[in-house]
Specification:
Blueprint lengths: L4 E6 L3 H12 L4 E7 L2 H10 L4 E4 L23 E6 L4 H10 L3 E4 L4 H12 L4 E2 L1 H6 L15 H11 L4 H8 L3 H15 L4 H25 L1
Parallel strand pairs: 1-2, 1-3, 3-4, 4-5, 5-6
Helix pairs in contact: 6-7, 6-8, 6-9, 7-8
Length: about 220
């Protein structure tokens, strides 16, 4: 019998942390391996138990959750980190993406979205809450050089930000997986990256005013 996806919760609000632990314990295939309130406690827990996904609050009182990324070391090899937060500004979102988090979920999201996000992140995918992406499109100090997207590239990027697989993207926009892969490679080339996580980070950091604005406009059409 498999242990399922092993989860560590790090949140300084005890009531939320314990409520979330009880919620996740009812989901098939998920197992809460532990929960704690600080980065230091999280590092110690990761050294003692095997964990697949860390659900990490960004605002931990006197420290920010992303401090954990720099302290994982050998104990955190292979562990995915996902931020679960009440809200983050554009700069905090970019910092989290640069630090290597696999996704961000807002605390007021539907619990079903959180469970799906955990499963996707554990499988090596990413998950970025649409609300976080809206916050990350706040005006930048200087406008980036415009690199326009085609309609197909815009559709594929929208699906990547929704956390869809190539097969799911193909089904949503009604094209072949080969076409989806080609569009992803075109996006990689335009962004100057090699992975989906890097694409999301660069899209948010450098092209939010163009690419993500186009995505929101397209979604409203």
């Amino acid at each position: 019998m498999t242990e399922g996806i092993r989860i560590l919760l790090i949140d300084d609000h005890t009531l939320f942390r314990e409520s979330l632990a009880r919620l996740l314990a009812t989901e098939a295939g998920l197992r809460v391996a532990g929960h704690c309130a600080t980065v230091a406690e999280g590092v110690r827990a990761l050294a003692e138990v095997d964990v697949d996904v860390v659900l990490l609050d960004y605002d931990l009182g006197d420290e920010v959750g992303t401090n954990l990324l720099g302290q994982l070391g050998a104990a955190g090899q292979g562990t995915k980190v996902m931020i679960v937060t009440a809200g983050m500004g554009a700069n905090a979102t970019l910092h989290a993406a640069n630090a290597g988090v696999a996704g961000i979920v807002l605390k007021h999201s539907d619990p079903r979205h959180l469970v799906e996000a955990i499963r996707r992140v554990a499988a090596g995918e990413t998950w970025w809450d649409p609300g976080i992406l809206r916050l990350a499109t706040e005006p930048a100090e200087s406008a980036p050089v415009r690199v326009a997207l085609t309609e197909r590239q815009r559709q594929v990027l929208r699906c990547i930000l929704d956390g869809l697989t190539n097969k799911e993207i193909a089904a949503r926009i009604e094209v072949s997986e080969t076409s989806v892969k080609a569009s992803i490679q075109e996006l990689f080339s335009k962004a100057g990256v090699r992975t989906r996580s890097q694409l999301v980070r660069v899209a948010i950091e450098h092209y939010s005013l163009e690419w993500l604005k186009e995505i929101k406009s397209g979604a409203a059409e």
